Amino acid sequence: MDEGVVIRAEGLRKYFPAGASGLWGRRKAFLRAVDGVSFHVREGETLGLVGESGCGKSTVGMLLLGLHRPDAGRVLYRGEDILALEGEAKRRMRRNIQVVFQDPQSSLDPRMLVKKAVGFPLEVNGLARGAEVTRRVEAMLAEVGLRPEHMYRYPHEFSGGQRQRINIARALITGPRFVVFDEPTSALDVSVQAQILNLVKDLQKRRGYSYLFISHDLSVIRHVSHRVAVMYLGRIVETAPRGDLFQTPRHPYTRALMAAVPKPDPARRQPLALLPGDVPSPVHIPPGCRFHPRCPEVMDVCRETEPAPVEVGPDHVVACHLWHGTGFDARRRSA
Amino acid sequence: MPSSTPRSGTDPTGGWRRFREEHAWQIREFFFTLHLLRRNPSAVAGFVIICSMVFLALAAPWVAPYDPIRISLSERLSPPSWHHLFGTDELGRDLFSRVLYGARISLRIGLLVVGIAGGLGTILGAVAGYVGGKTDDVIMRCLDIVLSFPSLVLAMALAAALGPSLRNAILAVAFVMIPKFARLVRGEALAVRERPFIAAAKVSGASHTWIVFHHVIPNCLSSVIVLGTLVVGETILIASSLSFIGLGAQPPTPEWGAMISVGRKFLMDQWWYATFPGLFILVTVIGFNIFGDALRDVLDPRIRR
Amino acid sequence: MNGDLLHIQDLSVRFFTYQGVVRALEGVHLAVRRGEILGLVGETGCGKSVLARSILRLIADPPGRIMGGRILFKGRDMLTLPMKEMRRIRGNDISMIFQEPMTSLNPVFTVGNQMEEVVRLHQKVSRKAARRICVEMLEQVRMPDPESVLRKYPHELSGGMRQRVMIAMELSCRPDLLIADEPTTALDVTVQAQVLHILNELTRARGTSVLFITHDLGVVAHLCDRVAVMYAGKIVETAPVDALFRSPGHPYTRGLLAAVPSVDEDREVLASIPGVVPGLIDPPAGCRFHPRCPAARKECEHLEPAGVEVGKDHWVFCHAGRGKVKGER
C-alpha cells in the first residue's frame, strides 16, 4: 500500500503544557498544537501544508524532523517507523530528512564561515573530510546558484535570498530524500521569493526530492505543491490535489481562506470574505467541529460532533459535516 | 573563532592574502572596534595603563636598576632618592625594582586565573544553558553555593586549606571566579539555544558536544572577553589580599600585596614602603576595570549599529 | 495642484553611519490627494518607511538627516515648522499606524486607560464620557464586546484586535491624513481581510486620505486608488491602480508583478528579477535599476531618467518611457 510513499504520518499528536501550572505542579491546561494529524508524501511530490498562525503546521514539521517527540502517532519513512530507531540507525535515518527554516538570517550562525555552515553535516556524519568536504561544498553551492568564493564569507555579507540558498545547500548536502520547508520565503521580498521558489522546484525536478512545504501564503502553496493539506487548529480539514483544491474547495474554511486573499488585479476587485472573530487559541479548542464558531454554514451537528474525514473525490478528503453522506464516498458505496 | 586555516601553506604571501580574504569580516570588525575604542576616553586611558603595566612587567629585567631580592642591609629603609626611586625596604632591597617585578607576578596571576576560570566557567555555563533541565539545575545550584560566599572570604578559606603558596592562591581565586563566567555564559547560551541554526544543526546530525563547541561557545565569546578583562582587575586585588595576609606569594617573592603587608608595620615612619605597591595595585585595577567597561559598551550590538 | 493634501517635493534623506552615507531617499516627489488612498509599494530597504517617518519628522538625528526638499501639508512646509507646531499636527492632523501595534501600546496600562488618555488629550470631557467615547470608537472598528476589551492589557489581545484598537485610537481625532506602515503584514489573511475592510470603510466615510505602505501587491490592488512604486530610494512609477496593473510602465514594476505567484492560476516558473536590491551607500549611477533591468540601454548607466507621462495621471521614471510602454503588452 505504501508503494511510492516517502513519508507517512499517522495520528500525530503533540500537546504542550500551557499557562500557569497549578500550585502543586499539576498542569491545568494544554496547548493542543497538533491533534491527530495523518498524511503522506509520495516520491518526488510536494505536499503543501497551509494554515494560519497557531494552527500547528510548524509543529508538524518539527515532529517529522525529530525536533519534538509526538505524544502519539507514528512517522514512517519508506515504511520504517523512525521514532522507534535508536543510536546509529537513528542518525543514519535522520540524514534523509532535512529542513529549511523561515528566517534565513537566524538559521545561520553569524560566526560560522559559509564553508563550514554548509559542509559541517558531512563532517559530523563522517561522510567526508578535508579536501573532499571543500569539493562537495563547492559543488553544492554551484547547485543552488552561489559561487565558490562565497565559501569564505560570513552570513551577514549576503542578502536574504542568498542566505536562504546557503540554508538550502546545507539541507541538501547529505543527500536527503525528503525536505521540510518551513515558510522558507515569508521573510523575503517578492522578487527574491520568486528566485527561491523557482530554485526549490527546479531542484526537485532535477533530483527527485520530496517536499513538505509549510506556508501561510496560499499563492505560494499553489505555486509549489502537487497536493495541498489545509490545517485549522491542530487538524487537517481538507486534503486534495492542487487543481481540485483551488478550483473546488469543499471545506468552508478553505473557501474562506481563499476568498480572504486580496488578488493583485484591480479589475477583479471584490469584497474579501469576512470570517467573524479570530482564530481561537489552541488551549481552548471549541467542542465539535473546531471551525464551527466562525463557520458561515454551521449546523447543529457541528456544535457537538467532530466531523470525520470523508473522501469527496479522487484523493480529495474533507473533514466537514456538510459532505457526510453526500460525497464521492457515498456514491462509490452505492455503486 | 571559526577554525578555518588557509590551505596553501607554500607561498607565505598567498597564505596571508587568503587569510585576509577569509577573515575580511573579522578584520573589518576589529578595526571598527578599534575606531570606537579610540573615541572612548576611558578606553584609551585603560588601554594605556594596561599597556604600560604589561611593558613594565615584560621589561622588568632591563628596566629594573637592581635585583629585586638582593639584600643590602646598609641601605635598609632609605627614603626615595635618585638611587632608589621608591626607596628601600627593611632588608635594603630596592622597592622600585620589586614593584616592577611585582607587576609580572600580578599580571601572571590575573591571566592564569582568567584563563582557568574563564575556560571552565564558559564550558560549565554553556553546558548548563544549552542542556537545561536537571543538568542546568545541578550545575547552577552548585555554583550558587560558591557565589553565596563573599569571594574574598571563600578564596581565603580555600587558600588556607590548600596551604599558603602562590600556586594554591591562584587555584583558590580561579575557583571563586568560575561562577561569574558560568552565569554569564549560561544566560547567553539560553538565548543561543533557541536560535534556528541550532535546530538545523541537530537535524543535520550534529551531536550536542559539537553544537556546544561550534555554535554556543563562539557566540558567547565576546561577552566572556569583556568579563575576563574586568575579572583580571578583581583577581589582582584578591590575590594581593591573600598575599597580604600571608596566604599567597611567600617571601622573598616581590608580590605587591605581600609588600604592603610588611610595609604596613613601617607605615608611620617609612610611608614609601607600603604606598608604592598600593599605588600600583590601584592603578592596575582601575586600568583593567575602565577598559573592561568601555569594551563592554563598544561591543554592545545596540550601540554598534 | 489644489486637490493635494500632502505634497512632497524633492525630498532627500541620508543616514550617516560608520560604513558610509546611506542615501535612503533621493529627490522624491509624491502627492497625496484629499480623500484618496495612495499605496506606496516597494521591497525591503527601498526607503518607504523612511519616507513615512520623514513626513512626521520622526527620523532619529543622528544618524539620519533630512538633507533637502519640502513636505507641504495643506500648503505649509512641515520641515520648517517649529517643533511645537509639529507636535500639534502629529496625532491631530496626521496619524500613523505601524506594523506591530504592540510598539505603540504601553504594556503596563489597560487598553481603556490608554484610549481614554488619548480622548481626553484632545477633548475636554469627564472620565465617564471618555469611556463612552472609547466604547463607540471600538464599536466602529467592529470590536466584539468593547467593554471587556477596554479592561484588558494589550498583550491579552490578538494581533488583529490590537491593530483595530490602534486604528480606533488613531482615527478618533479625525486626522486628515493617516499613514499606515505595513499595518496588516503581521496578520493572518482572514484577519487582514477584516482590518482592510474596517480601514477602507472608516476612511472612505470620513474622507480621510491614507498613505498605505505595503509590499503586498494584492492589498494594493484591493484597497488603493493610486499607487507609487519605490525602488532603491526613488519613486519609479506613479499611476492610478487600474493603469498600473493593466499596463505597468517601469520594467521594475513589470518584474514585480510577474514575480507574484497567483492563487488563481498555475504558473510553472515565476519570472524573477535577476540580482539583488543594491545597497544605498553606493547606489548605481544613472537609473538605479539599470544593473537588473532587462531593457537597460547605454544612457541608463549614467543619466537619471526624468518622469514621462505615459497615460492620464500615469508617470514613469524610465528612459524607455512612452515608446516602450506602447510597444510592449
UniProtKB/TrEMBL annotation, chain A:
InterPro entries: AAA+_ATPase, ABC_transp_ATP-bind, ABC_transporter-like_ATP-bd, ABC_transporter-like_CS, Oligopep_ABC_C, P-loop_NTPase
NCBIfam families with a match to the protein in the record: oligo_HPY (TIGR01727)
Molecular function per GO: ATP binding; ATP hydrolysis activity
Biological process according to GO: peptide transport; transmembrane transport
CDD domains: ABC_NikE_OppD_transporters
PANTHER family assigned to the protein according to its UniProt record, in alphabetical order: D,D-DIPEPTIDE TRANSPORT ATP-BINDING PROTEIN DDPF-RELATED (PTHR43776:SF7), TRANSPORT ATP-BINDING PROTEIN (PTHR43776)
Protein name: Peptide/nickel transport system ATP-binding protein
Domain ABC transporter: 7-258
SMART domains noted in UniProt: AAA
UniProt organism field: Desulfacinum infernum DSM 9756
Record keywords, A-Z: ATP-binding, Nucleotide-binding, Transport
Record flagged with keyword DNA damage: no
Gene3D superfamilies documented for this protein: P-loop containing nucleotide triphosphate hydrolases
Family from the record: Belongs to the ABC transporter superfamily.
PROSITE patterns hit by this protein: ABC_TRANSPORTER_1 (PS00211), ABC_TRANSPORTER_2 (PS50893)
Automatic annotation (TrEMBL), chain B:
Gene Ontology BP, a term: transmembrane transport
InterPro entries on file: ABC_transport_permease, BP-dependent_transpt_permease, MetI-like, MetI-like_sf, OppC_N
Keyword Transport: yes
UniProt main location, coarse: membrane
Subcellular location: Cell membrane
Keyword terms: Cell membrane, Membrane, Transmembrane, Transmembrane helix, Transport
Family listed: Belongs to the binding-protein-dependent transport system permease family. OppBC subfamily.
Protein name from the UniProt record: Peptide/nickel transport system permease protein
From TrEMBL, chain C:
An example Gene Ontology molecular-function term: ATP binding
PROSITE patterns in alphabetical order: ABC_TRANSPORTER_1, ABC_TRANSPORTER_2
Pfam families linked to this entry: ABC_tran (PF00005), oligo_HPY (PF08352)
Membrane topology value: Peripheral membrane protein
GO biological process, one term: peptide transport
Domain of life: Bacteria
Keyword DNA-binding: no
Keywords: ATP-binding, Cell inner membrane, Cell membrane, Membrane, Nucleotide-binding, Translocase, Transport
Compartments where found: Cell inner membrane
CC terms in the record's Gene Ontology section: plasma membrane
Record flagged with keyword Translocase: yes
All copies of domain ABC transporter, residue ranges: 6-257
InterPro entries, A to Z: AAA+_ATPase, ABC_Ni/Peptide_Import, ABC_transporter-like_ATP-bd, ABC_transporter-like_CS, Oligopep_ABC_C, P-loop_NTPase
Family membership noted in the UniProt record: Belongs to the ABC transporter superfamily.
Name of the molecule in the record: Peptide/nickel transport system ATP-binding protein
Taxon lineage: Bacteria, Pseudomonadati, Thermodesulfobacteriota, Syntrophobacteria, Syntrophobacterales
